[in-house]
Amino acid sequence: MPVSGLKANARRLMTENAPKLFYVSIVYIVISTIMSELEIRLPGTSSAYVLFLERLAAGEMPSPSVFYSNLRPSGVALTTVLMLLQLVIAAGYKRYCMKINRGQGGDYKDIFEGFQFFSKIILLSILSAILVFLWSLLFVFPGIMALYRYRQAYYILLDDPEKGALQCIRESGRLMAGKKLDLFLLDLSFFAWILLNYAVVTLLPLPFALPLIMIWLDPYRGLTLAAYYDSLINKLLV
User: What is d(CA 204, CA 237) in angstroms, rounded to the nearest whole number?
Assistant: First the structure.
């Protein structure tokens, strides 16, 4: 299915499943936003962010090691926990979008469904990150190719939680063979929405500025990517 068809299908599903789809998305966005804010504002992390931003403002390009060297151990531990929780919550929202796309319904509890296989999601995230990093050592382009090669691994795991992390990564590689440019163009089609969301969040003078555009964009993009995964699976079955 072309990009226009995938996105048209997503908009149709958004209309058919409103308003509940948007309520669930708001819950997901609020949880994710609070976690992101806490990562920055928790004691032991806020000072590191301030120093990092000050160097950027001064025209420097500090390495990530500069940021981590200013973190206190407590900040590192809390930030790591929040990052892991965000990964699991994001996986749950992907699962919710998959259910909506397949006409299986969905509920708020789906956002937390990832906790049933928490360890597999974390292991999959770590292994994918390591593989992308290793490919990036060759050059930037191989790293980007690897990033797209493993993009379907989460969906494969959510589709069948009995599968192992490495199996999901290998199957993702097979699914994405010759399809990386398609997914890149699909991502690119949402770029203007992402820029608009960034502008809104930046301009809102709120301590926990809710990314209002994301209330539309998250289900729109989530349903489109879920449909893209299903289109890959359906091609294998034909």
Answer: 47
What pLDDT digit, counting tens, does each position of 10-56 carry?
999 999 999 999 999 999 998 988 887 777 666 556 556 566 666 66
Q: Which helix (H) or strand (E) holds 46?
A: helix 46-57
CA nearest neighbour of 146 among 124, 130, 163, 168: 130
At a CB cut-off of 8 Å and minimum separation 6, what does 101 contact?
9, 13, 223, 226, 227, 230
What is the value of pTM for the model shown?
0.84
Structure tokens at 103: 């006409």
Rounded CA gap, 80 and 162, in Å?
A: 26
Please choose, from the candidates 189, 196, 145, 168, the residue with its C-alpha nearest in 3D space to the C-alpha of residue 94.
168
* HEC profile of 126-182: HHHHHHHHHHHHHCHHHHHHHHHHCCCHHHHHHHCCCCCHHHHHHHHHHHCCCCHHH
The dihedral through the CA atoms of 103, 108, 114, 115 has a sign that is negative
CA distance 158 to 166: 14
Give dist(CA 75, CA 47) in Å, integer. Answer: 10
**DSSP symbol at 190:** T
Give the Cα separation of 206 and 137 in Å (integer): 40
How far is residue 175's CA from residue 182's CA, in Å, rounded to a whole number?
A: 12
